[in-house]
């Protein structure tokens, strides 16, 4: 009896896995998740990413949105709704998740929620090198960091209040953060 394809995150060497079962990068899952919410064009994706502060917790640049969309389209996870006008700008093409894309987003989101993964934080590299700093430098660096964290907390709260009501995924990001 076959055990079926490996779970997301499992070793896939020499195994053919359907596209929707292959692990997505964080940028791919972020874009695909926004398209599962509703079809969007590239500029709309950029606006939502900016408005929701998504760049605070994932690496997705403005210039990479169309690259990610092209990758997802090649894998059959999104499809393009071509505007009626033959000369319509490429940037106004509307992308929507396919059924395989919805399943890929679901499986990858589930894996990220279920499976604890190590998170590398640059602060730890700095702390590991404390012998290079004087006590005064370290104390000042912590005060500077605290001021920046407090500024970020204020910005996140303002963003949260300015976007009510938020869709469930965005609400959960704000709820899960220590900034309430």
From TrEMBL:
InterPro entries: Tscrpt_reg_PadR_N, WH-like_DNA-bd_sf, WH_DNA-bd_sf. It holds the Pfam family PadR. Residues 31-105 form the Transcription regulator PadR N-terminal domain. This is PadR family transcriptional regulator.
